[in-house]
Amino acid sequence: MRVVIIGGSGFIGTRLVEYLQKTDHDARIFDKNPSSAFNGLVTLGDVRDQHAISQALRGVDVVYNLAAEHADDVRPVSLYYDVNVQGAKNIVQAAERNGVKKIVFTSTVAVYGLNKPNPDENNPTEPFNDYGKSKLEAEIVFNQWAEKGDGRSLVIVRPTVIFGEGNEGNVYTLINQIASKRFIMVGHGHNRKSMGYVGNLVDFLIRAAEFGEGTHLFNYADKPDMSVRELVNYIRQELGILTPLPVLPYLLGLMGGYSFDLASRITGKQFSINSIRIRKFYANTTVSTSALESIGFKPVVSLQEGLSRMMRSM
User: Fold this and answer.
1) Whole-prediction pTM value?
2) Out of 131, 197, 220, 282, which one is annotated catalytic?
């Protein structure tokens, strides 16, 4: 089976290519960036370039779309829509032109918004930022493609925070802050977070390519959820840090985040702290995985073991 991973040079894409090769798939990458692990498999191109996408999907059986603008503070804001929405439109046009029948799209749990009570796939969507809004619009584009039938299979996966070896996202930053003893807990830490280990997510993405005709929608997280305090304490324990955990009241932390927002606007620099990240850190961001459980999918690696593997690789 010939597979193209759009956005395959990134963290999740690299692991996906590695697993696909183990199962003898003909995997190729389409990305604007080279791949540190599989550069010989890369066609350099931009998802916003419809002609380039169409060329890349010739003779392809399955398309994984992992490409996205996803940082909290992308400027200009229009990039979220140019890449995430127009990119989706370009992909479905290229799929129709080339007769591609299977698309697997990684969306996001951000489509639900913050502090929602464990939403499942039937819950209303209420994204609070442009990243979530643009991903939801992209879902609509892919759904419209799938609704045309003709044997088309669409799998939309809404992952939560994904971490693991090679990742330099929020969990990586958290581990580094704790290791350097610069971390301060914002709020009480009782809020819970759904998370997922990259190896488990990739196991599911590979299985998703086997689903039949129609649209299939899944949240992705590894259960059980951890509270922020449990997460921080586990990392501190693994690092051998025994000093008391410093805590900052949420409102003070949020005011600090707004101060960094202002500094960013004035200087044009991007900072690791901003109001959106403070709000996300303090919020409950859990999702239901009942759809995953209904098909019998079980992650192999626990959250704690995944965290330990990541820390050992750093």
Assistant:
1) 0.92
2) 131
